[in-house]
Design goal:
By secondary structure, this protein is an alpha/beta fold. It has 18 helices and 19 strands. The chain is about 35% helix and about 20% strand. An eight-stranded mixed β-sheet has the order 16-17-18-4-1-2-3-19, with helices on both faces. Strands 6-14-7-8-10-9 form a six-stranded parallel β-sheet. A three-stranded antiparallel β-sheet has the order 11-12-13, with no helix packed on it. The longest helix has 18 residues.
Length: about 475
C-alpha cells in the first residue's frame, strides 16, 4: 500500500493535466470516507460525490436518532472533505434516472457505489400489508425529517400498544423515541411533524420482540442502557427467559458485548417492580418468539390488531451460531401498530450485478465482479463498492472507515498494477461531462454551497425553537431553499 501511494503521488503530480476522475455514488459515511481516503491517496485526483437527495451525509442526517447529537459530529469532518478544492458534491442527482451507471463509467475513470440500503427486508407472512404495519426504516425517516418519510403519518392515537419486531439498535432507537418524554425530544433536531404526533401519542406500552434469547439480543450495551434509563419507565422481562444454556454461557464467555447486554437485562429484571405504577409507560422485552402472521382488526377493516407469534427454541450451531426454531406453540399479542426492524435491503440498478440472497453487489475487496459466482477473474474494471452495498447492512458509522480504506487500497493496487492504466492515461470528461449531461436533461444539481444554504436556514429556524435545527422535511422546501 505504501509503494502504491508513493507511485501515485509522483504520477498524478506529473499528470495534473489529466487527473484521475472519480465518482462516488452516495454521500453517507461510506461515500465520504471513500472520498477522503481517495483525496489523500491520489494527489491531483478529482472526486465528485453524487446523491439522489438534496442533502448530504446519508444516515448521519436521516438515520441517527435525534437524541444522539454526539454521533452527528462526524458531519464536521465530512463537510471539510466536501469543501476540499478537488472535491464536489452534487445532490438531487439520481443514479438510474438522472444518469445511468454506464454513463458514469464513460465519464469517470473510477466509479464507487456507496449508496447504502434504502429498502427493507420483508417477513413474507400473512397480513404483512395491513395498515398500521411499518418498517422501522420508514419510521426513522419520518421522525428524522427525511423527505421520503414525510407522508408516513403513523397512527399513534388509536392504540396504547406498539410491537417492535427486532432487538437491534434500530429497534431500540424506535422504542426509545416512542417512550421518551417529549419535553426531552423537543430540544433535539427531531422533525416538527413527528414531535407534534409524539406529543399527542397514546402509546404507553412498547414490546420489543426477538426470535432468540437475551444472550443473542443484537443491540449494544450503550443503546440498551439508554432505553432502560428512560425516566418513569416500568421494564418487564420474564425471569424464565433469562435462564442460560451451556451454549449461551460459552457465547457470553467469548463475547464481551453479549455478556454486558445480558448483565444489563438481568439487572433490569431484578430491580423492576412487579407491576407498573399508575401513569408509568411500559417497556416489555419478549424473547423466543417469531411472528407467524399479523391479525386484522374486527372493528377497523384492513388494520392490524395484533401479532400471532410462534414460540421458539434455540438449536445447534454452537456458540454464536444458534438458530431459532419454532416449537409449534403459539400466542397472540394485541397491538394497534407494528414496526418491523428486521433489516435493511439494498436496491439493484440496471447494469449492476447483484446478489439478491445476500443483498450485496458481488465483490472482492471492493472490486465489483460481473456475476455472483465469486470468480475473482471476473472483475468489472473501474467499478467498486463500499459500505452496505459491499458488505451488507451491518456495522456502525466507523465501520465504513475501514471498509473505505480497503476499497481505496484496491483502487490504488489496480492503478499500480496497470489494471486501470489505459483508463488513467485516457482523458475522461469527469465533472464537466456530468454537469453538461445533467444540464441537457434539465436536472438541477444541489451543490455543497446550496446545501449550506439549507443548513444555515435550518439552524436559524432551530434557534427560534431552542433546537439545534428545524429540518425541512419535504422535497419542495429543500429544493426551494437550495435554489434561492
Amino acid at each position: 500500500m505504501f509503494r502504491a501511494r508513493t507511485w501515485l503521488s509522483r504520477s498524478f503530480t506529473t499528470l495534473s493535466t489529466n487527473p484521475l476522475r472519480v465518482c462516488i455514488v452516495g454521500s453517507g459515511p461510506a461515500g465520504f470516507y471513500t472520498a477522503e481516503k481517495t483525496l489523500k491517496a491520489h494527489q491531483g485526483a478529482q472526486v465528485d460525490i453524487i446523491d439522489r437527495l438534496p442533502t448530504p451525509f446519508g444516515l448521519v442526517r436521516s438515520g441517527v436518532a435525534p437524541d444522539h447529537p454526539e454521533t452527528k459530529i462526524v458531519i464536521n469532518q465530512f463537510s471539510r472533505v466536501a469543501q476540499h478544492e478537488r472535491c464536489s458534491f452534487f445532490g438531487n442527482v439520481t443514479l438510474g434516472s438522472s444518469v445511468s451507471l454506464s454513463e458514469l463509467r464513460e465519464l469517470y475513470h473510477v466509479v464507487v457505489l456507496a449508496y447504502g440500503a434504502e429498502s427493507d427486508r420483508t417477513l413474507s407472512i400473512p397480513g404483512e400489508n395491513l395498515d398500521g404495519i411499518h418498517s422501522a426504516r420508514e419510521f426513522v425517516w419520518w421522525y428524522n425529517g427525511h423527505p421520503d418519510g414525510r407522508n408516513l403519518n403513523p397512527d399513534l392515537k388509536s392504540t396504547d400498544t406498539a410491537v417492535i419486531l427486532g432487538q437491534g439498535n434500530v429497534a431500540l432507537d424506535v422504542g426509545r423515541i416512542l417512550l421518551r418524554p417529549t419535553d426531552e425530544l423537543a430540544t433535539t433536531d427531531i422533525a416538527s411533524h413527528a414531535l407534534t404526533a409524539l406529543q399527542e401519542s397514546a402509546i404507553r406500552k412498547v414490546y420489543l420482540v426477538g426470535r432468540r434469547g437475551p444472550v443473542q439480543a443484537a443491540c449494544t450495551a450503550k443503546e440498551l442502557r439508554e432505553i432502560l434509563g428512560i425516566k418513569n419507565l416500568h421494564v418487564h422481562i420474564r425471569e424464565y427467559d433469562l435462564v442460560k444454556s451451556p451454549a449461551d454461557e460459552a457465547e457470553m464467555k467469548n463475547n464481551r458485548i453479549r455478556r454486558r447486554v445480558y448483565e444489563l437485562l438481568s439487572k433490569a429484571a431484578a430491580s423492576a417492580s412487579s407491576q407498573p405504577r399508575p401513569g408509568q409507560c411500559e417497556l416489555h422485552f419478549v424473547f423466543y418468539r417469531k411472528p407467524d402472521s399479523f391479525l386484522e382488526s374486527h372493528e377497523r377493516n384492513g388494520h392490524v390488531s395484533g401479532v400471532h407469534f410462534e414460540k421458539t427454541v434455540l438449536k445447534g450451531g454452537g456458540p454464536g451460531k444458534q438458530i431459532a426454531v419454532g416449537n409449534g406453540e403459539y400466542e397472540d399479542l394485541e397491538c394497534g401498530i407494528v414496526l418491523k426492524s428486521v433489516g435493511y435491503k439494498s436496491l439493484p440498478i440496471n447494469g449492476l450485478p447483484f446478489d439478491h440472497h445476500k443483498g450485496v453487489v458481488p465483490n472482492v475487496r471492493g472490486r465489483v465482479l460481473s456475476d455472483t459466482s465469486g470468480d475473482p477473474s471476473l472483475i468489472e474494471n473501474g467499478l467498486y463498492v463500499c459500505g452496505w452495498l459491499k458488505r451488507g447492512p451491518t456495522g456502525i458509522i466507523a465501520t465504513n472507515l475501514y471498509c473505505a480504506e480497503e476499497t481505496v487500497a484496491s483502487i490504488s493496487e489496480d492503478l499500480e498494477q496497470g489494471v486501470l492504466a489505459s483508463s488513467s492515461k485516457l482523458q475522461k470528461p469527469g465533472r464537466e461531462g456530468l454537469l453538461q449531461l445533467l444540464d441537457d436533461r434539465n436536472v438541477k444539481p444541489v451543490t455543497f454551497d446550496s446545501w449550506e444554504k439549507i443548513d444555515s436556514e435550518e439552524k436559524r429556524l432551530g434557534t427560534l425553537r431552542d433546537k439545534p435545527r428545524e429540518k425541512f422535511a419535504t422535497w419542495e422546501d429543500l429544493l426551494k431553499v437550495a435554489m434561492e
